[in-house]
Amino acid sequence: MTTVLPIAPHSDAASPGLDRAGLDGAGGEVAGLDWLDALATPLWLLRPGGQTVWMNDAARALIGLERDTSPAAVRIALPEAPPDALEQAAMGRKVETRAVLHAPLTLPLEVDLRLAPAPRPTGLILAEAPADSGARQEMMRLNEQLIALSYAYPDIRFELLRDGTILDFAAASPGDLNVPAERFLAHRVQEVLPEPAAGLLAAALGRLNEGQTVIGLDFSLPPHPGQVGGGQPGTAKSFEARLVALPDSDRVLCSIRNVTERVQAESAARRAHHLLSDAIECITEGFVLYDAQDRLVLCNARYRELFSANTDLITPGTDFETVLRGGAERGVYRVPDLEGWIERRIEQHRNAGPPMEVQLQNGRWIRIEEWRTHEGGTVGIRADITDLKAREAELSIARDAAEQANQRKSDYVHHLSHELRTPLNAVLGFAQIIHEEMMGPNNPRYRDYAGQIAAAGVYMLDLINNLLDLARIEAGRMDLHEEACNLSLLVDLTFGMMQPRAQDAAVTLCMEIPDDLPSLRGDASLIRQMLTNLIGNAIKFARPNDGHVRVRAETTREGGIALTVADNGIGMRPEQIPVALDAFGQVHGRDRAAERGSGLGLPLTRALIGLHGGTFHIDSSVGAGTTVRLTFPPCRVGGAM
């Protein structure tokens, strides 16, 4: 059976005058016994109830206590003594027994004790231990090692009863818990620690009493004023606690570790990770990172968006080749030689080769760029260059169009010089003949030559006027002098002007315009010019000796007016129509046409109908003739004439 001498509660009522060590700590009870303090024998003074009220320096040295440690911190167990050993000692009988001494931050120490009444009638019991034992010296050495180890070990450790009573504790920095070390003795842990630690430990002890054996928990404490260590000043402190119920015992071991620095480091790492993730998400291109084993680490939302058909494979830990081949099998990429492209893509990825462009199945173009990291991983950027590709195509088309325009310009100048040089040579030649009277004075042929000169002049004037009109229209400087126009009248006037040419070519002119056709608002002179160009072309290319030109006007379903000029002449092949609509375009040579033309009639007519907001359409087939349709918009139909 074990007799335990309990630790006296640390209060003035239980041990008055115990605020100082040594003899003064026991107040009047040990007055006159100061000579005991000088003895080399370890001595303790106990009350009959077993409370330790004083110990000398030798006793402190035996256990390994600091001088300012309260005697009440010592617990003495008498495992081999009879239950009434203290009563017998108090009545004057000496009792020898084996005792186990328990003190903070030391190992339990077994010693032989002799119990006897104190030398004076103080009512106290004197406990004396031998001062010579080698075991005691070894125990002191072990206690010193234990104390050193306790201060080197970062945890705060408690030995508790199941109700939370603190039997023992060891701590390198007891102030971490914002509690003075002396408060840990003879108190319950849930009464000493601040909240929320107290409540959490009380709940954990309750679960241990219900049968659990190991419980772990985390808690934080507010900073202690003037704290040093355990985190930056003014910051909360974080702790991890672990409670273990000892089997076949009523004791619980509790260790509490200050993990503030680790928690702060983890928090800083999480903030850095979130900051990096946010930055990566803000990148407008797709971003992806593979580790040294070529496994996917992370990617941003833009990357997932570009390869949305492959999202289930784009997960951390998936290797690059699996992601690539999975996408290829699902038709993500639009490449002619898929297997060959995959091999080139893997080679480019492994060696971080030059950028590569690929078109996806949805038509988007992606530029792939990759770089190696210091750890052997791969970081890649996927940029959507669809718009860039479209601009390149547009620039290519524009470049081709510019080259074609430059060629047309050269052809234009060539045709213009030819068209002007030919009549001008005739003018100069005939003028010189007439001026020098090379055929004799007053030769009747001079009159014909003068007519040739006049015709050539008219041709050049018409040519220059047409060129100027085209230039003004293209520059947006042609003004319309709008009025209500009667198409029947305009066609009739044009027929009157073109009739001599039609008679010479044996071509019949026909007009089919209903009497109730609404008036047309436009520039009458320009409308006549369009009719002149179209009717003139029709006469020129009409069927010889059996030709006819038909001019028709009608309202459209949309409310506009369609003006049609059709002939039954030699016609054109479909591929010749764009040539005929180009300036100076000559589809038929002189062997197919009755008279020469400048090639400006159709282009100018198309520009003039466009100036009126209308449309130009031409149909033609070889041997069946040509039909040109001018459509004026509904907004130009009607109005007073």
Annotation keywords:
641 residues; seven-stranded antiparallel beta sheet; alpha+beta; transferase; histidine kinase; Beta-Lactamase; two-component regulatory system; five-stranded antiparallel beta sheet; HisK_dim/P_dom; disordered N terminus; kinase
- The shape is rod-shaped
* Cross-sheet strand order for the largest sheet: 1-4-5-6-7-2-3
Amino- and carboxy-terminal Cα gap? 137 Å
Q: What is the level-2 CATH architecture name of the largest domain?
A: 2-Layer Sandwich
Approximately how much helix is present in the residues? Answer: 25-40%
Average pLDDT across residues?
A: 81
EC number: 2.7.13.3
Protein name: histidine kinase
Enzyme class: transferase
Keywords: Kinase, Transferase, Two-component regulatory system
Structure, explained:
Keywords: Kinase, Transferase, Two-component regulatory system. It is an enzyme of class 2 (transferase). It catalyses: ATP + protein L-histidine = ADP + protein N-phospho-L-histidine. With 641 residues, the protein is α+β, with helices and mostly antiparallel strands. The protein is 36% helix and 23% strand. The chain folds into five domains: 3-150, Beta-Lactamase (2-Layer Sandwich); 153-265, Beta-Lactamase; 308-384, no CATH class; 390-472, Orthogonal Bundle (Helix Hairpins); 479-636, Histidine kinase-like ATPase, C-terminal domain (Heat Shock Protein 90, 2-Layer Sandwich), CATH 3.30.565.10. It has helices spanning 57-63, 85-90, 134-152, 189-192, 197-209, 260-281, 301-306, 320-329, 338-351, 386-435, 445-474, 487-504, 524-540, 577-580, 601-611, and strands at 3-5, 43-46, 52-55, 75-78, 95-102, 109-117, 125-128, 156-161, 166-170, 214-221, 237-245, 251-258, 286-290, 296-299, 356-359, 365-372, 378-384, 482-485, 507-512, 520-523, 547-555, 561-567, 615-621, 625-632. Helix 10 packs antiparallel against helix 11, helix 11 crosses helix 15 and helix 12 runs parallel beside helix 13 (524-540). The chain is rod-shaped and about 180 Å long. The model is unreliable at 1-25, 227-231 and 590-594 (pLDDT under 50).
